[in-house]
Design brief:
By secondary structure, the chain is an alpha/beta fold. Helix content is about 35%, strand content about 15%. The chain has a seven-stranded mixed β-sheet with strand order 2-1-3-4-6-5-7, sandwiched between helices.
């Protein structure tokens, strides 16, 4: 098999920091869309956050949304254009903080959309503040002494939180911190898109991702942090597959 540049991915220079996982996830999304042959009918919604310029990297229609409102916008698009493939691409601050209500209610209604949720346990674009997914004890600019259980509360586990909702069809947590994890993540993303094509309802794939800059780690140590620390708090696996 020949390893080629995905047709759906633009040949543009990335703005992401060295060692960031967003570039890997972008490629996986583009590969899946190419393999499914759905590029001309795909519409994505972009977040506020590190992936705010998602539209610079993809060769399909993308709508920029207000912070956290991607699920609401995606719902409107899918209801008006049910033959389109609609997905959101969101970070943890966008999806699980300001966008919590939109996330929960879109999932609860069983909207037939796909959600790609990038979890790097920190606010990346705005300087490294604590996010809803920041680990207990993790140091950020707003928790310089480490996140405390009684002061800030524990991290929100999105897959576990949504798994009780009847409208949810598919939830899986993956990672891009090893070659094997990347393969599993791509398979999960493809399944989430196929679920939408089959009209099965709401699907979300969570992807644990590296943020060397705001974690103040080397790219190599950031990978180690995901494998040794994040996976303890956010275990990988399928949480719902209806």
């Amino acid at each position: 098999m020949e390893f080629l540049h995905p047709e759906s991915l633009c040949a543009s220079q990335s703005h992401y920091c060295p060692g960031c996982g967003h570039g890997i996830i972008h490629r996986l999304v583009a590969e899946v869309i190419d393999e499914l042959g759905i590029r001309e009918k795909t519409i994505a919604t972009a977040p506020v956050g590190c992936a705010v310029m998602f539209y610079d990297y993809m060769k399909f229609d993308i709508i920029e949304c207000a912070h956290g409102r991607s699920p609401a916008v995606a719902t409107g698009i899918k209801r008006m254009l049910p033959d389109r493939i609609v997905f959101t691409y969101q970070g943890d601050g966008d999806l699980a903080a300001i966008g919590t209500a939109e996330t929960i209610h879109a999932a609860n209604r069983g909207e037939n959309i796909t959600v790609i949720f990038v979890n790097n346990a920190i606010y990346g674009m705005t300087g490294g503040q604590m996010a809803p997914t920041t680990l207990l004890g993790q140091h950020t600019t707003t928790t310089p002494g480490g996140r405390g259980k009684h002061q800030e509360g524990g991290p929100i586990r999105v897959c576990e939180l949504l798994s009780s909702l009847d409208g949810v069809s598919y939830l899986e947590r993956t990672s891009v911190s090893s070659p094997r994890d990347v393969i599993v993540a791509k398979r999960a993303i493809k399944k989430a898109f196929e679920n939408q094509m089959d009209g099965k309802g709401y699907s979300l794939v969570e992807v644990l991702s590296m943020c060397p800059t705001d974690w103040k780690l080397t790219p190599q140590d950031a990978v180690k942090f995901v494998n040794d620390e994040m996976k303890k708090t956010f275990p990988l696996g399928v949480f719902k597959d209806r």
